[in-house]
Amino acid sequence: MEHPMATFELPYAKGALTLEIPASYPVDVIAPAEIAAAPDPRAAVDAALDRPVGAQTLHHFWGARSVAIAINDKTRPVPHADLLPPLLARLEASGIAPEAITLVIATGGHAPMSPDEFSAVVPRALLSRYRVISHDCDDTEQLVFLGKTAYGTPVWLNRHFRDAELRIAVGNIEPHQFAGFSGGVKSVAIGLGGRATLTANHAMLNEPRARPLRFLDNPVRQDIEAIGRLAEIHFALNVVLTPHKTIGRALFGEPVAVMEAAIPLIRQVYGVSIAAPYDLMVISPGGYPKDLNLYQAQKALAHASLALNEGGSAILVAACTEGLGSRTLSRWMTPDISDYAAVFAKFHQEGFRLGAHKAVLIARDGRRLEHLWLVSELPTAEARRMLFVPTTLPEVLTEALDALPPGGRIGVMPLGNATIPILRSPS
Predict the structure, then answer these.
(1) Position 36 in a domain
(2) Which of 221, 254, 269 is the last residue of a domain?
(3) Are 57 and 202 in the same domain?
(4) What is the mean pLDDT of the chain?
(5) Is the peptide bond before 285 cis (omega within 30 degrees of 0)?
(6) How far apart, in whole angstroms, are the C-alpha atoms of residue 293 and residue 164?
(7) Is residue 35 in a domain?
């Protein structure tokens, strides 16, 4: 006799995997609130450009001799095809020649993008009209030193961006596991920073207030704001995306004003109230590009851990078709690191290293759990090297359900990279 099953779709790469759990097990789906998609995305962007927040407008930069626009790389689901054409048209209408405009791909600590990859983030029609370059955080010839923040972070910034007369950041605003929020100046402060800048900033990730959805008291985010002030970023064009990666709301203006306008909406959409922690969580980062590599997919595990009991279990469902996503992380996880304690010991001995910090974040969450499984395209040995137990959904489910304590709670997070579980206080 077949038992009735509850079915859940988990985004995976550019498709989905189906999760089936016997209906006798109660399951909660933890996902962002629905937000209406803009009926006409480009019209929404035009409306934002028409009504900038903050004191400055593009009229202050009429006829600027040079413009630099920071845009996100292929690991971010930013709808550049809707954002860039209205912005570029507005700049040209302001007397700025196309040859004066440079699009700078903000790769942060990721590998630079090669020119044959540019069409993955810039519409082809724009590639022939505007100069496009990729940032490289290790290319000292590209960097200029701007001073230090109050947190002691040395600020090295992309020279092509900083030397421009008008400087604009383009991106999306969503929760971030230790910076609180993406968006605003972050695409520049981190996306176009030198490795020393990224390292010093991210070294604060274990600070108690370096948590998702925290802004004013978050040291990582406030350091990012300080970097942004030294970079003198004039405008941010940001969007709040729906759970389906379409534009919900567009904002344009001074970066701080953009963040102030967006944060209440982000908290409302992506902060999800839960009554009690869970004993088993099945997590998808949200599919492509959030599960392009383990470097990105790890964020979903960090968010899910906020809702997991000590000694619980997690199943991370992330394709990772491009592997780990960090050469530093791959080199750092040597064969002698066989458990979480070894990760912490090596990290403590060597000090903070960008890329290797992902191993620490995985270990930080994994050490609380009884089981940490990974459903992915990573080779089995690679998954094990990263201290996951590689598996498939059908294979793992029986074991996971058997490991549940009596009355154990099960949660499913289909959009884990952008979902922040918030434990309700007892009334």
Answers:
(1) no
(2) 269
(3) yes
(4) 94
(5) no
(6) 33
(7) no
Contact criterion met (CB below 8 Å) for 362 and 298: yes
User: What domain range is 106 assigned to?
Assistant: 41-269
Q: Is the full-model pTM beyond 0.85?
A: yes
Q: Which residues of the chain have pLDDT under 50?
A: 1
Decide the pairing of beta strands 247-253 and 235-241. Answer: antiparallel
Out of 269, 295, 323, pick the residue that ends a domain.
Answer: 269
Domain count, the chain: 2
**pLDDT of res. 34:** 87
d(CA 321, CA 298): 14
Please indicate, yes or no, if residue 143 is contained in any of the structural domains.
Answer: yes
Q: What is the pLDDT of residues 130-176, one digit of tens each?
A: 999 999 999 999 999 999 999 999 999 999 999 999 999 999 999 99
**Torsion sign across C-alpha atoms 329, 332, 337, 339:** negative
Give the model confidence (pLDDT) of 177-215 as tens digits.
Answer: 999 999 999 999 999 999 999 999 999 998 999 999 999
Q: Nearest Cα to 134, choosing from 156, 159, 110, 113?
A: 113
CATH of the domain at 60: 3.40.50.11440
271, β-bridge pairs? 420
